[in-house]
Amino acid sequence: MIFRFKTHKRVDKFLAKHPIIAKKLMLLLKKIVINPFENNCDIKNLKGQKNHYRLRIGKYRFLYEIKNDIILIYIYGADSRGEIYKQ
C-alpha cells in the first residue's frame, strides 16, 4: 500500500526558500510513502502524540502525521531544530 503525501502551506513556503533541502525531502519521501514504518531514514516518534513523527534532514526538522484511515502522510511543520518545536 503506497501512501500519498500532502504538505501544509507553511511547509511549501519553507521548501521554496530551501531548494536543496526540498530535493532531499523528495528523495526521502519516495522511501517513506512506500513503507512509512520501516525505512532507514532518521525518523522518530513524537512523545505524547499518536501517529506523529519527525524527520531530520541535517539541521532541519519536518513534522508529519500518518493518517492510516485515508492512506495519507500530512507534513505540517518544517523549520530548524531550535524553532520547530516552539510552534
Could you characterize what this model shows?
The protein is an alpha+beta fold and 87 residues long. It has a single domain (4-84), classed as RelE-like (YaeB-like fold, 2-Layer Sandwich). The chain has 3 helices and 5 strands, in the order βααββββα. The protein has helices at residues 9-17, 19-34, 81-84, and strands spanning 4-7, 43-45, 52-57, 60-67, 72-80. The longest helix is centred in the N-terminal third of the chain and has 16 residues, at 19-34.
Helix percentage = 25-40%
The whole-angstrom Rg is: 12 Å
* Strand order, sheet with most strands: 1-5-4-3-2
Largest sheet: 5 strands, mixed
What spatial form do the alpha-carbon principal axes imply? globular
How many separate structural domains? Answer: 1
Classify the secondary structure makeup into a structural class.
alpha+beta
Q: What are the segments in which pLDDT stays under 50 over at least 5 consecutive residues?
A: none
Give the number of DSSP strands.
5
For this structure, the CATH topology is YaeB-like fold
Q: What is the string of SSEs from the N terminus onward? A: EHHEEEEH
Strand content: 25-35%
Q: What is the arithmetic mean of pLDDT? A: 91
Number of helices: 3
What is the name of the CATH class? Answer: Alpha Beta
CATH superfamily: RelE-like
Distance between the termini: 32 Å
Q: Please identify, by name, the CATH architecture.
A: 2-Layer Sandwich
In short:
With 87 residues, the chain is an alpha+beta fold. The chain is 33% helix and 34% strand. It contains 3 helices and 5 strands, in the order E-H-H-E-E-E-E-H.
